[in-house]
């Protein structure tokens, strides 16, 4: 085979490869990741004391209280005696108690942990704990806004396929999460 034929075959292959790569790129951008939208409720801070519901732990007085006019939900930021911050939400009869300053993030097991760590760092999530066997990260968030958990969940869940799940840490599950610490 002559050198000119080799150059033509190489050039043709390169051209076809470029067109194929551009087509794949356009297809991926057109289909895009699913949009994750979480409806955020408007809250206003109140200075009037609102009584806390019965909580399953010893705590100090709440130092922030937010009320939603549209859903009549009340949220408190409550510290316990061990220094953890809890967000207590009450909407009528239902009471939810979750850690206010951290979220549980489930990474895709098909992606290496350094890449997931870099992605979380890039999005300003400080990693507090990591379980490499289950690809579970515990990340720190700002607890001083009424919708900070929902806003950070929206950011994390939009990182599909790298992040396959994210959730707040409820009071009962928090004790078992803390006992499995493996931050290396």
Compose a concise summary of this entry.
The chain has 184 residues and is an alpha+beta fold. It folds into 3 domains: 1-31; 44-49 and 56-98, no CATH class; 101-179, Alpha-Beta Plaits. The protein has helices at residues 3-31, 113-122, 148-157, 171-179, and strands spanning 44-45, 64-67, 74-79, 85-91, 94-107, 126-131, 136-140, 163-170.
In words, what does this structure look like?
- With 184 residues, the chain is α+β, with helices and mostly antiparallel strands.
- It folds into three domains: 1-31; 44-49 and 56-98, no CATH class; 101-179, Alpha-Beta Plaits, CATH 3.30.70.
- 32% of the residues lie in helices and 28% in strands.
- The chain contains four helices and eight strands.
- It has helices at residues 3-31, 113-122, 148-157, 171-179, and strands at residues 44-45, 64-67, 74-79, 85-91, 94-107, 126-131, 136-140, 163-170.
- Residues 176-181 have low confidence and may be disordered.
Number of helices: 4
The average pLDDT is 83
Q: How many beta-strand runs?
A: 8
Calculate Rg over CA atoms: 24 Å
Name the assembly state: single chain
CATH class of the largest domain: Alpha Beta
Number of domains: 3
Tell the overall outline.
elongated
Uncertain spans: 176-181
CATH topology label of the largest domain: Alpha-Beta Plaits
Report, as a whole number of angstroms, the end-to-end distance: 57 Å
Major sheet attributes: 8 strands, antiparallel
Structural class estimated from helices and strands: alpha+beta
Q: What would CATH call the architecture of the largest domain?
A: 2-Layer Sandwich
What percentage of residues falls in helices of 4 or more residues? 25-40%
Secondary-structure element string: HEEEEEHEEHEH
Beta-strand fraction estimate:
25-35%
